[in-house]
Fold this protein.
Amino acid sequence: MKIQKLNAPKKVFSISTFTQPPKLESKFLNPVSISFRAGHRRLRQESAMMSAIIEEKPLIERRAAIDVGSGGTKVCIADVDAKTQQIVQVLFEESFAVPYQAYLETSEEACFNEEIQQRGLQTFVEIKEILDQYEVTKVAAVATEAFRKAANGVEFANRVAETTGVPLKVITQKEEGAIAFYSASTTSGSAPEELLIWDIGTGSFQIAAADQDEDLLVYMQSMGSVPFKNYIIRDIQGKDPSVVKSPNPMTEEEWLRADAKARELGRKAYPELKKQIRDLDGSIVGIGRLFANSVKPIGNTPGVITRDDLRSFIRSCLNKTDEELGDPYANVNLSNCILVLGVMKALHIHEIQIVETTSTKGLLSYAPYWTAPSTRQPFLTSSKMSPR
């Protein structure tokens, strides 16, 4: 894989780049024209001014955020101001398809087999080369639902680190929800208390909101896009998901049964979160690939999806094959929309604003992964990212 590096000039911060204090006139040192005390006070003032100038200069770090999802691995490299945690410039952004969840669904032992591990390792070897080319100095890499489910998920994450030198941490679903919430709140520009964030991934979904004490409420379900699609194929249609990859064509009766399952998932949300939804004086925001690819295109209002939009789309897809639907995501579009509509009905959500953001951009500026002295602290220098 050939990577074309951006020809952005390197930013080197040294004393010569800062604004210099004004030159002192010769009379400044003349005791007749000015007293020593006054001159000393002026020197202190100029020193303080220069210190303030230096403090205002950004402290740029070349960071990489890696999100190993259930269906793909997302990478984002950016220059970030370590003082404000703001992204200054995105240098590289890519997603690598690695179907961890699909392989896991076919495993009787609930393990990653050697084939998918080799695909994952090869992807990380490529990612490591990209990190080196961009001279990344800090890395945060997280793995989510498929790794949580796999009996050897943590073991494989450790193998990735040992083989490539890239640190990989299997995070909890609550941490995943927190990253999604932070990513959406920074992108939308709204205050955290005015938002409810819904992130649906390949393997799971999280709904998160900040309560009155600014603590994060996260409702979590291990029923993302692929598990819900496979539930329809296996439990409703009586077929083998390892053989049959699409629920299409679906009948109206199958839709109603799938809708009942989706509403059941929504009704299990915490009472506190349901109250947050009822009392919310702000936006319910959908993020992630499912909302961007399957749901957003069917809305009648740009960036907004309603129950009526979903119902109309579902009805238009019933009794049609993937070929008749003619969409690259036809095998999941219908089941995705059934999942979203069912949960919306259960939680009395009438519309969702869809924000295009990525977990990697949120992770790049999520301070706990870069400043807190914890096990989440990424490797700090490129030398520490060398393969062992």
Summary: The chain has 14 helices and eleven strands.
